[in-house]
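User: My notes are a mess, but here's the protein and magnesium ion's SMILES. Can you give me a structure?
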Amino acid sequence: MIKDTKCGIVTIFGRPNAGKSTLTNKLMRYDLSIVNKKAQTTRNKILGVLTEDNYQIIFTDTPGILEPKYELQQFMIKEISFSLKDADVLLHVVDVNRFDINDLELIHSSYGKQIEGKPKILAFNKSDLAKDNIPLQTLEKLEKYDYKEVVFISALKNKNVDVLKSSIVNYLPDAAFLYDEDYLTDRPEKFFIAEIIREKILSFYSDEIPYSTFVNILQFKERDSGKIYINAEIIIERETQKKIIIGRNGEGIKKLGQQSRKAIENFLERSVYLELFVKIRKGWRDSEGFIKGNM
Ligand SMILES: Nc1nc2c(ncn2[C@@H]2O[C@H](COP(=O)(O)OP(=O)(O)OP(=O)(O)O)[C@@H](O)[C@H]2O)c(=O)[nH]1
Ligand SMILES: [Mg+2]
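Assistant: No problem, the inputs look usable. Here's the predicted complex:
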């Protein structure tokens, strides 16, 4: 019997820190994207494929929409733009506690061409923290933007995420599956390992450090012992940042190495030997060549 199937690309977009990656992980029921309380955590578009019943959803998590100031952010903006263009369904994530109708206006005017004619769903996230309801007059202003559905969710507490998923499925095109049923993501293991290390850097270090860091996996191989050997380079922009990462008597990098190794072992379900090096690459964030070659 031929099954009627639905399949489509659902692009998850919105401002930095709105909870896009947390939501992607909850929808996928798999931790694909790193999540952090600092903004600009996600730098690349990340594809996650969810196959259930008669539908396949190709979720695309994207970086937060911002005004680009340097080459890395230009790259992030392009990732958003491509993902919106490829989408069949758009899932706009807004932190309900920071809702600003002007933001909506800006996003719709900046990305009008990419989003035109596509079904849009608005997810008001972090509703677990919401003190006040959004005034009716404000909700009425939403009409102009033609969202098919408006859903209040908490990605963190997994509240209404299933309701949101059912809405998404309603708008998926009738189509054959694009990927095998067990296909999960377009990114290689190396990418996720670099992301795990970057997430630890976001958690352990403050100010400019996480934003000035790029993690490069130089080696990833299985040793005869069965352990996975990983050699990673932490690229930062300045000598002072190198000192901070390494820490007094190397304590900073030691902790970073231990915590990263544990998280990588968890991810790979294998024993890991991790070596970290810190390297300075002045102004890499603003180098077109570096971004092109590495991102
Ligand atoms: N209270 C609460 N916090 C949330 C919720 N969803 C996400 N967060 C938190 O918000 C922060 C940002 O979450 P992310 O998922 O990294 O946000 P993002 O939109 O992917 O951020 P960027 O990648 O930087 O654009 C994290 O500290 C999350 O734990 C929610 O529903 N409720
Ligand atoms: Mg993110």
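The chain has ten helices and nine strands.
User: Great, I'll file this with my notes.
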